[in-house]
Amino acid sequence: MIQVGQKLPSATLMEFNEVEGNGCALGPNPVDVQSASAGKTIALFALPGAFTPTCSAQHVPGYVAMYEQLRAQGVDEIWCVSVNDAFVMGAWARDQKTAGKVRMLGDGSAAFTQATGLTLDLTSRGMGLRSNRYSMLVKDGVVQTLNIEAPGKFEVSDAATMLAQACA
User: Fold this and answer.
1) Could you tell me the CATH superfamily of domain 12-167?
2) Strands ordered across the beta sheet of 41-47
3) Taking a C-beta distance cutoff of 8 angstroms, is the pair 165, 67 a contact?
4) What is the pLDDT of residue 151?
């Protein structure tokens, strides 16, 4: 499992863009994790799935609401990672009104999630291999803090915890 002090793994996530700009075409675009995190401070949070109850009601809305506060503490970008395809993440971004605040990044094949060692097997619930719920503060591609939730919990990966860590 990834640890504090380690670099993010080499992986490519996918992001659905509805508006062309900044060199990004419409539709799914690859995001190379290492180059996209280089030289930046990123509040990264991951969760089991788009449109799921806790994720939609609390996790994503918390980061959207605290966007300005996180930016004021030096966070350059907020990334939401889920084992879903880019089209699902794009639809969820519209639903959650994340535009310009939270990058909704699909890890469709779970390559990034497996490389971090933070997988959650929900096969028995019909959801297959997913991501554990966690957050991490990343500076220049290196994990500074790592907050992994206990099964079924939402206590340490929330935006308020991340804000406190970004202030430290």
Assistant:
1) Glutaredoxin (3.40.30.10)
2) 27-32, 12-17, 102-106, 77-82, 41-47, 134-139, 142-148
3) no
4) 86
Whether the pLDDT of residue 122 is over 90: the answer is: no
Look at the pTM and tell me if it is higher than 0.85. Answer: yes
55 an active-site residue? yes
Query: Of 24, 55, 80, 167, which residue is the catalytic one?
Result: 55
Residue ranges per domain, the chain?
12-167
* Mean pLDDT in residue range 82-93: 94
pLDDT band at 81 (very low <50, low <70, confident <90, very high): very high
What number of other Cβ atoms are within 10 A of residue 94's Cβ?
12
Range 84-105 average pLDDT: 94
Report the relative pairing of strands 77-82 and 102-106 from DSSP bridges: parallel
